[in-house]
Amino acid sequence: MKISVPMVLNSRAQTLEVEPYWTLQRLLRDELDLTGTKEGCRTGNCGVCTILVDGRAVKSCLMLAAQAAGAEVTTIEGLARGDELHPVQTAFVEYGAIQCGYCSPGFIMAATAFLAENPRPSRDEIKDALEGNLCRCTGYIKIFEAVEAAAGALQRS
Amino acid sequence: MTATTELHAIGQPILKQDAYLKATGNAAYAGDVRLPGTLEARVLRSPHPHARIVSIDVSAAEALPGVYAVVAGKDVPPIRIGRFIKDRHALAREKVIYVGEPVAAVAAANEEIAEQAIQLIQVEYELLPAVFDPERALAPDAPILHPDLAQYIDPGTSKRQGNMRNQVVHEVGNVEEAFNEPGLLTYEAVYRTPRQYQGFTEPHAAIAQVDGTGRITVWAATKAPFGERQSVADTLGEPVSRIRMISPVVGGDFGGKGAAFIEPIVALLARKARRPVRLALSRLEELTAMTSRASCVIRLKMGVRRDGTVTAMEGTLLYNVGGVDDSGAGGANSAGVLLGAYRIPHARVVATSAYTNSSPAGHVRAPAGPQTSFATESHMDHLAHVLGMDPLDFRIKNALGDGDTAPSGHGVLRNVGLQECIAKARDWMARELGEKGRNQGVGVALSLWALHPNPARVASAATVKIDVDGSVVVTSGVADQGGGQWTIVTQVAAEVLGVPVEMVSVIAADTEATPQEQGTGGSQTTYRVGNVVRQAATDARRKLLRFAAERLEVDEEELDVREGEIFARSDPARKVTVAQIAQAAGASSAGPIIGTGAEEREREIIEQGHERSEVVDAPSFACHVAKVFVDPETGQIDVQKYYTSQDVGRALNPLACKGQIEGGVVFGLGYALSEELLSDQGVNLNANLWEYLLPTSPHVPELTVELVEVPSTYGPFGAKGVGETANIPVAATIANAVADATGARVTQAPLTPERVLAAVSGS
Ligand code: FES
Ligand code: FES
Question: Does B249 touch chain A (CB under 8 A)?
């Protein structure tokens, strides 16, 4: 039996019909074809499914769709303003923080939430904040540099 | 090389074209392909390490509403498949030989029904004795996993029998005599290395679709669509032309995504269900049933003179390749690789791989590299210590140089950049290392990845087409698993043709639309694919200039191309755009401009001829340094600073080059410190991401990467391979730093706190 769940998804208010056992990840990827939110473990250990729920970073494999009732949900597809990338996205592209890119949407969402909370983080704070996101390609260095650059860009904007 | 003197696209930190797509969530990976009516697949896997399949009853599963197809061993032909040795079936037929081996599969309307259906399949097994230890597997009374091994197709020619998958002997000089030299110092030790998971963030995924005529298209997370197509075709009993494999964007590979495990299964299901079928593996499946780096036990003995000259090496390597071996010649090649970056005149190394009832072994970033390096570089360090020599001086004294034979025994080394790497490392050490405090130590190690590309056996090709608006379309069979291969292809074509990189697009890794390609990997892709793209672009450029020469009434030799314009060097005002020429050519009887590079390649092969098959012109060397702190109470290692200088020949894309090296070092740190796939009776114990410990961001040390550029002779613009040199020596570097800090040598990787404490307390 599906239930109706109202939410604001990528700035659009809508009511979605969901099975009570669906995770947000399942809803986004398989029902709404928002495949920018990735799937890597379904156990909360890789971070590739990270999205924003009311501005906070959430691993969408660990949250039921029904729990998002009344919430504002943002996925990687909803981060840019039209063609204009979010400063975190721009920094990831420019600093070489993206190789295979499978981890990138999750990192970008996690970093966006983190910088909103801590606009001037130290390198160590960045490292700790991103602990829940795995990247096997980059060795993380360029991701740290990108987050630092994004922090600067957000300050200026 | 191109006639353009200043390079505009090569050597620039050009943003990856695809980074934008990836940053916005618009890059479609195999698991993101959406087709209407797609069914979800699930696989039933063996719970036993070794058992005969007595019967399989799928009737209850087939009867479940929402189930469209069930397949099992009876649906696959007796012909075996495999990337190297063909030693497996897509679904087990008579027996299972490892826990997690696919036995049956289901396609259903959704994943819940598929899961349920899997539970309804009844399999009766008769348990067989199993063997897990490679040494025991080679004993005469061991249960035999592959009774028909002798009949298997294996591209390698090595020796195999019983559970011995292969054995390779590498011999130079006369070892017995060398070890008998009076006064020679000898040292012998045993090293153990773990099974390591590739750890890509994107688990394997594939989706298959059947068209009205029964032709099948498979989108898969693979770097080797052409090789996998063969396995799919063999499993389905179809000619390869009836199968189309497409490799979209791939979420990391590290050696693990070149073998057909799930692709034949989705294809079988799709054919039976007549609907698209998708399968995405769980991490449990990834870490239970897919491949990992073969564990290895290495016995190593070296002989060294008092002046620090290493004269003799004797070694044995014993690899556990599990139930089926996807590590190919990795075990075999590693015999020579044990010599490392050193000139050792007398050596005998025997490398043996054994089948056991463990999960399969496969390729993992630099197959055989980290295992052998851990032994050889630890050993070298110990010898330097015993001799009272500086560890780098000792290495330099024995290091390979130009004119030496490559460790594989094939080809003579050219363009060796090792000395520059070491010099840079020394400068950095002097500048940055500072004082060594209590419980701190510094370790070094050298790395070598020496590919030997034989131009006569290039399994690559490309076409380059100039469109009517002056844009360029390259087709290449190469997959991009995150290493930036498609970007490099773009850059090379842009450079040769004198058009902006934004004007170049790539159609890639599609068995129907692109030329055949052997697959990304071995740090050879830039070198090999870069070269064929350069040749094809040169071909197109020549055709372009020929046309322009007629139009402008100048000699072809007089012309150059820049920013989409063809002009006479002596009189730049005489010019025409690439677009105009492309239009004119397209409207003429000569037809549109398409470069293939075949002629160019032929010419280069003839010119370089003999020399090319004799030399290793792009050996990739590196020097690594680590400073660590070892907690004497807990045995915990804190890597405080890490440094590497690496010879990349020519950095076609410096940002991507450094990124690959940084990623490689951290990959190696996982192998050094925490990554180890553990198992008991063939069951992998830490088959999840909370117990199999991949490096996470807080573990990353302060890391400095410096590039050395000693160009290769034949690589595109002088490039050498990059990806694998960086992770090879990390475990040894750390072990050497720990020995420096504590005086104790840890001979088993990863260097867990328990192992460090045990070594320190001398047990
Ligand atoms: S898929 Fe959600 S954390 Fe891995
Ligand atoms: S870029 Fe590949 S996992 Fe991060």
Answer: yes
